[in-house]
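Worked example (supplementary).
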Amino acid sequence: MHAIDTLITARWIVPVVPTGVVLERHAVAVHNGRILAVLPVTEAETTYTPAQRHDLGEHLLIPGLVNAHGHASMALLRGIADDLALMDWLQNHIWPAEGRWVSPPFIRDGAELAVAEMIRCGTTCFNDMYFYADEVARVASSAGMRGVMGLIVIDFPTAWAQNADDYLHKALTLYEQFKGNPLITAAFAPHAPYTVSDGPLEKVAMYAEELDIPIHMHVHETAFECLQSEERFGMRPLARLDALGLLTPRLLAVHMTQLTDAEIARIAQAGVHVAHCPESNLKLASGFCPVAKLQAAEVNLCLGTDGAASNNDLDMLGELRSAALLAKGVAGDPTAMPAHAALEMATLGGARALGLEREIGSIEPGKAADLAAIDMSALTSQPLYNPVSQLVYATGREQVSDVWVAGKRLLKSGQLTTLDEQAILTRTHAWREKIQAADQQAH
Amino acid sequence: MHAIDTLITARWIVPVVPTGVVLERHAVAVHNGRILAVLPVTEAETTYTPAQRHDLGEHLLIPGLVNAHGHASMALLRGIADDLALMDWLQNHIWPAEGRWVSPPFIRDGAELAVAEMIRCGTTCFNDMYFYADEVARVASSAGMRGVMGLIVIDFPTAWAQNADDYLHKALTLYEQFKGNPLITAAFAPHAPYTVSDGPLEKVAMYAEELDIPIHMHVHETAFECLQSEERFGMRPLARLDALGLLTPRLLAVHMTQLTDAEIARIAQAGVHVAHCPESNLKLASGFCPVAKLQAAEVNLCLGTDGAASNNDLDMLGELRSAALLAKGVAGDPTAMPAHAALEMATLGGARALGLEREIGSIEPGKAADLAAIDMSALTSQPLYNPVSQLVYATGREQVSDVWVAGKRLLKSGQLTTLDEQAILTRTHAWREKIQAADQQAH
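After joint prediction of all chains, the assembly is encoded as:
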């Protein structure tokens, strides 16, 4: 008998690797924050003496969800301006609000609200793109949440930096800061092809190679972006990124609603990853990402909620369902994006895109114990014929009961263990008063 | 001071009529199951002495949601066969399961599961199309739920009836049975243009006129249906229904994913109602209902979940969100289907389509007190700038706290008051064992 930290048992475990497998009445043995073994409960009981044991009952245990694209602190702008045309939304609401409010306290409080919501919805790792990534990293780290911080680069000045060189300089400083933090890694985050010039993009490509980190970027979000690029540069954004040397397995291209077959073939060949954000794409009417075609071309897909200002939640379970449903509608094929493939996209797909596939994304020995448990006993999940199908098509965020990151239990029977929900609500209400008063004054 | 049964106060009330209004700190006065008045809390307190008072706190009170299309008892087949091509799904799974299991006990237990789920998700009225409508009516009635029972008509024999004449005969018998039941009304439910011949359709049109009830029918669900109709009848289904005299304000046409501009103009002129089922249409890859175009043509839209076998839940709040998001994506316009319009579709639109607009669909004096309360204090609904936007884009079914139908509280702080949830689960588990064993044996 081996002494271990924790044994977690569940009615069903979906490890994601191997593909398509549902284990019944199995256990996950966890020691020093890592998965030691996945084995039948009866066998686990004769192998290990756990310091703690969690018997989850009629639950489904999955790898923690990986939110592959978002702007966490924008949670404070959730629903401030809906049902508007994109440019009206950006120019008259989001940008003015950001210009006025983005500051370390806003970033901290917004990130805390977002991290609390993400943990409650089963997310264990988020890929963020916003200002003051150092503040976001501190919030995530102190909550025990895993995160990939975007080292943002844009041509124009913001509260965070003055010009491309300043952004790059700050990016490198942040990268050094995060080194050695077991939960926090970094990715370059040049905002989008239309907001970053060739020079800084070439530097990003060079530094990303040197530091061996991903590049996280909005690409081909709208038809307008592609048209504008043809006018300005004589080519579509992907072609320009290709010319600048950015189409490599480092690139996580977000949205990608505008893709020709040739472009799909090119990104497949280059090993580019695609972050699909179906609810944001629908809400902003950006277009439809051709998910089934990308899967057929073996492009690695991951899933993101985008920011709460264009979603308006950070619920990866809901996003998973939207993605699985929408893929079928867009492909005109009800067999597109079946449940297991959708779950893989929301877990291992994200891990791969973030360069974390040896660390997270599946329930395998040696990986970090990043896990989410979902209670399937609810009336709305019954009768249960197929746990993964039920998870994808009928389960709600309220059924997420427990969440672990690196073996630490961040959600315990629906309660946050590392964050003070009441304090977060109080701070959120205070921001609402200030932000709403200013927004109303402006309109 | 007037003695009344019940006073309900809430932080926000969205009455749906007048359009776009959000009342703060108002109350609804209820007497004899009907809405007496909607007025400021302070005024209510000096006007009424209620026998019961419910102070809802940070809740949003809306008209109960009207689920305009479903097959309640199919809840027992939730998730039995997903990610399959339509004909494989129907011919190899759904139809064999129905052939084997459809019977009064299956219908009763399935309807009870469905009604329990619908009440918990804020639905107060459902429009059903399935066999043994008498059993469904008994379940709904005894649970205190409002329902419109489909008097089903199909050409071929099923457990319920042998041929079109038999279906029609049984329809008229059911109609008589339901008369006088304050919660149950009837609609003719010829299944679809491809399953009902001209003769019975003409009779349905005639009887519906005579009895003054709606006609509830799947129409233009898929491109295949339209092609097949052109081959068999030399015209598309809508043209055939037009020739048969069915395009009138009695017709509630469900799905309608295949529509030319001329067809939209024709149904607008005829006053046909459209039941939009976005999640089912996506999951079965049926096509996209052109919701924004229908709204522009002033066609009355309502919202349905369809059956749990093709959704896989009966959550009208989730459906509302999917509809509002998808409408934008399909129209390529982020201003399509704004939040208030979406809520109207899910409430008053359904009431209109079911001929119940004088009875339900809005919070207005004289209407039945069919209400749903949603707790907006949850972390996932904060910060709250706009209650209706938050309801549509960020609220989950778990936030539905209280539901009243005709003044009777069917959900009390998340607990069902008229249904025994544990007993429903036990029966559902027993069905699962039987159905799964048979489905596995067959494959």
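Two points are worth noting when inspecting this output. The mean pLDDT of chain B is 97. Chain B touches chain A through 67 residues (CB under 8 Å).
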